[in-house]
Amino acid sequence: MRTGSSPLPLALRADLFAQLATLELAGLPAQRAFASLRLPQNHAGRLVAMEKLLARGVDLAGAGRQSGLFTPLEATLIAAACSAGSPAASYRRLGEHYALQARLAGEVKARLALPALMIVLGLLLAPIPDLAAGRIGAGAYLLGVLQPLLLIAGTLLAGKWLWQRSEQDTSGALANELLALPLFGHWYRDCCRRNFLASLALLAEAGLPLFDAIPLALQTVSSATLRRQAQRLLPALQAGATLAQACTRVPWLQEERIIALITTGEHSGRLPEMLLRLAAQLDEELAHTATQFAAWLPRLIYALVVLWLAASILGSGAFLPQMPEGL
Fold first, then answer.
1. Alpha-carbon distance 144 to 66, whole Å?
2. What does the pLDDT read at residue 1?
3. Residue 14, exposed/middle/buried by CB under 10 A (0-12, 13-18, 19+)?
């Protein structure tokens, strides 16, 4: 990818690859296919760069990587698919994969929008009894609203920073602490398993040898600690082990279901199919988890906001009888 360019948003990548699959099946040449596509203004430059590179004779995968339209993994996958014939199947798989991820992320964000609004309204309404009674002025009211908002924003930023530090932590100390958290640790491992196995399946299906596919698939694992553990895979394969045997040496790939399906795939000669089945099962489980999370977290936030508002109003004494001064 171009220096400093980040991957396209998930929904945009899903739409891009779905359109490319349709155009490829329709028999449209790559240059004409990309010329017919449209991207939002802030990403349109990548598409223009892609068209120019294709016009100069750069191959499809190379042009996608250089323009920033494809990630390195996508470019390798498409290059392998083009060598085998047509990238249509790879386009379709990538489109489906990103569409699911975008849907899950969008579902959670949509469910959290109303609770976020409730928090803001709660902050605005809670100090009103004190303001109406004259116990605080307008400045104190604004400060009382802004302070919690800044605290929440600071907490979210600190959590994001801590997460990023844990993902980059090669020593494993911080990452292991977070991975040991109930619910979160299991969910995060499942995400990493899904990303690795789905990428490995797509690369193997496109005809890439495992020795070349594994390092590329590991690039989709965001945790440096989990990637370091998975570095045992290639030496094991080079020593003559099967993929199933190599996976038993990686803690987060030692799940019985993973070993069983990979073993079946290797014995039957249908390893890509079994890996895709594994990835589909993990997708279903993650979708269920995301649905539950999106359903219950807003309820918890609603309850906390209601309790907080009730405590603020009752604590203000607004509904208590006021004794006249001097009595």
1. 50
2. 47
3. buried
Confidence (pLDDT) at 313 = 59
Q: Is the pTM of this model over 0.85?
A: no
Q: Six-digit token pair at 249?
A: 């040496």
Q: How do residues 22-37 score in pLDDT, each as one tens digit?
A: 999 988 888 888 988 9
pLDDT tens per residue, range 293-327? 767 766 777 677 677 666 665 665 555 455 555 54
Structure-token pair, residue 228:
């370091």
Residue 52 in contact with residue 64, Cβ under 8 Å?
Answer: no
Nearest Cα to Cα of residue 261 among 214, 188, 193: 193
**DSSP characters over 221-271:** ---HHHHHHHTTHHHHHHTT--HHHHHTTSGGG--HHHHHHHHHHHHHT-H
Q: What angle do CA 281, 247, 231 make, to 5 degrees?
A: 115
Look at residues 194, 207, 218 and name the one whose alpha carbon lies nearest to residue 275: 194
> Across the chain, how many H-helices and E-strands are there?
16, 0
Q: How far apart are CA 72 and CA 78, in angstroms?
A: 10
- Between the two ends of the chain, the Cα-to-Cα distance in Å is 78
